[in-house]
Input
Amino acid sequence: MDTTRRMFVGMSTAAMVASVTPAVSAPVSAALPANKDKFWVAGTTPCGGNYEFDAAAYAEQLAWWKGQGADGVLVLGTNGEGPSFSVAERKKIAETAIKHRNGLDLIVTTGTANFKETIELSQHAAAIGADSVLIQPPFYFKNPKTDGLLEYFRVVMEKLPPGLAVRYYDIPQVTGVTITPAFVTAMAERHPNFAGIKNSHGVADEFEALSTQTPGRLNIISGTDNNMLAALRHGNGVILGSGNVYTKLVAGIFAAHRAGQDPQPAFDKLTAATNLMQANGYSSNYNAIKYALNLMMGSGRVNLARPPHVPLSDEEKAKLRAGVVQLKTMV
Output
């Protein structure tokens, strides 16, 4: 159901080979957090009518997500339009999130197409108090060899504080880079602070293999709604774009899970809400997500996605308003 993912045409890549060069770093640490089954919102980044970051609006969003039951927020991911912001802007946005975290667990996305800026942003995130960072592979050059990808992360991670938890962002429909359980295992063997991955590919069999064929200490997080229950069965978490608007409904799934109850009824309620909103024009247009979020919050702020995302028409806004009226009766 989480369709807020940009598709990369012609990105089919060679599968990562199962054999990788031997690990060379220290033994795996057992010090990473044990409570892996958390719900993070893949948060949108608010921008005003001039497309500039709106720090006050972000503070309001963070407080609303916390009040609706989220455990944490992913800062500057795909829904957060991370690549649409400069390095300086990304630092400011991360600092704003930390300042207004309200007890939320914050993951800051720090990956870029080069290791220099990735290191700079990751070091900054660590310095300001991020709980972990999420790093996508260098996404300009497609089909990298496994050893090249491992070398990239060696260069990055040797420059980061050993206590900073690092997560890999697995979103091949955007990056053009596919991974296997063997790659994830090699990362865990080489880097004690490697905490797991966010899998946003949405392929059930692939997610199951990553969940069952990698070290148990890792958090194999689902980035799509369809793999949410599978993640919970394995004791892992989710980072969801749907969490922006349906925050309380997703939190309800986690509440049932933590109470030892069957989460399926709560999941079915989320599915019904998603179908309702899709019938009213809620889709992968980030402007639709931001507009619906403002309606749910009761905010009159302008909140635009940066180009190339297209602003909503008056007709689209009217349909979303009608959908949100119905949605509010379901949460």
About this structure: The beta strands are 39-42, 72-75, 105-109, 132-135, 165-170, 194-199, 219-222, 238-240. The CA atoms of residues 42 and 114 lie 23 Å apart. Residues 39-259 form a domain with the TIM Barrel fold (CATH 3.20.20.70). Residues 1-31 have pLDDT under 50 and may be disordered.
